[in-house]
Sequence to fold (620 residues):
Amino acid sequence: MLKKHYRFAVGLAMIVPLGAMAYCLAILLRFDGQLDAAYPLLMASTLGGVLAVKTLIICLARLHQEYTRYVSFRDMLVLTRTATLCTIGIVLVDAMLLTSVTIPRSVVLLDWGVTLALLAAARTMPRLLRDHLQGFISAHTGTRVIIIGANDAGEALLHSIRKQSDVLCYKPIGFVDDRHEVRGRRIAGVPVLGNYADLAELASRHSVKEVLLTAGSLPGKKIRELTEQAQQHGFRLKILPSYEQLLQEQVAIQPRQVAIADLLQRPAVALDTQKITQWIGGHTVFVTGSAGSIGSEICRQVLKLSPKKLVVIDRSETGQFFLERELQRLTTDTDIAVELADLNDLNRLDAVFSLHQPHIVFHAAAYKHVPLMEAHVGEAVKNIVLATQNVVDLAEEHGVEGLVMISTDKAVNPTSVMGSCKRLAEQYVQAKAKTSSCRLVTVRFGNVLDSAGSVVPIFREQIARGGPVTVTHPEMIRYFMLIPEAAQLVVQAGAMGRGGEIFVLDMGEPVRIIDLARDMIRLSGLRVGDDIEIEVTGLRPGEKMYEELYSDMEAHRPTSHKKIMVAASKPRHLLSVINEIAGLRVLADGPNEQVRAALDEIIPVQKTASRLPNSTRAAA
Fold:
């Protein structure tokens, strides 16, 4: 308490004298320093009232508590408001209390200006001196760097470098930006040197060792181009976290190497948040397969939209345990119900629907590992086809408003059991949608970066072990998207679907898996061939060389969202699909080859692609 009072007294002792000085200077300026005997009397009789007003206003504005280290434009507005209130207070005191003398109005106006100038000087001089000293030190020490982007993000990065010169030992040489209107200009004294194409030449000319970029300020394709420039010309490209990432505790404060997510070959998809909020807000939402990578991310995205209740369904006890702990930390407003259930246990699933009466269902539960499903065909049929039929039928029976099934590009011209099962599940949802009161839609997308069991964590583990990194074929190509992006697409599609659509994300250009492996090795600070070998192992059973997003029988149709298309095709007859699934249900626990033969009669398995499909040939 004594320390608090001490700081209060010291703060006032530093600021209040400035008020007295301003008033005296205003009188001197008004009369050009030529004062007769009357003016000392005026000053003596009014100074006490003026100081009382200024002290009161300064205390109310808490100027004595402001920290000069972080002075900003907002502080200048506060000072202007404080000086103005002081002037108003002086006029009122002069008119109502100081009846024996009158303060000239010109003195009052001059006092306003001088008070503002002195307070501003007192607030800004400590920071100006400190910043000048730090700038002088950093101008002669530190790693020479160029900042990408002469914009708000670039200016914030420059400010952070200067402010934390003891931690971020960098010497900013200049900015690069592709906008012509900023060329040749300066930001806080640092010039805009050129555009992105000039980066290699500028780095060489100015002996730049590192190039810095704020995360999220450029699309992944541009980052890949800059990364390739860096590799070819001997400088490093580093990503510094944005303030949004820091607030969400997504990254460490120190600079990091380019992450694999930065190399996504297209801008991230933006959502129609108003539409999806209206759809989900205040309703009960089911998510099946909630313990998986996509299911759990759908849960996180749904929670941001303020549902009344979120019901998460999975048969993984451990996965559900940790998911519940995480979701409870993310919200206090939404009721979260965790249910352990097998989607092929129809009685248990019906009880869950009856208990919670959902408005919306996101069906993410499925097996996904292609080679494993080749060895367990009956389990693939049960967990993909039969589980989907159970969820869809119960959703219709219990009056669910909308259901979104998650599918995969492997369902297009399938070469595997997993792909065939997903295609049959798509057909059932599409056929059922023609007569169902529930809006049934499907979302189809490619590979998800860094999902459990996907290629990225496998490559990461192989690199950590010292290699080799295994690739099944040097020409294998895949489409990629981010986990949050996949979940957001699912939610967006559910909001915009009318029933029966198969939505497909515009995923940009496909990526060669061997190029992805090389990028991950380089971004780990290692060299391909010297430090880590890449080994080609050959295609696995059921694996495709080239993934496709549309079949030859599907038309590409745009939607209201420019990054989401519809794979339009004629739905099959519902009774035909029901009969086919009923036959598989009888055989599902039988011999592997018997189930495979029955599935192949319904959805013929294609031979592994030997040529690049039309949809990807140009891109590759």
Remarks:
- The CA atoms of residues 95 and 140 lie 58 Å apart.
- The longest helix spans residues 105-138.
- Residues 249-258, 609-620 have pLDDT under 50 and may be disordered.
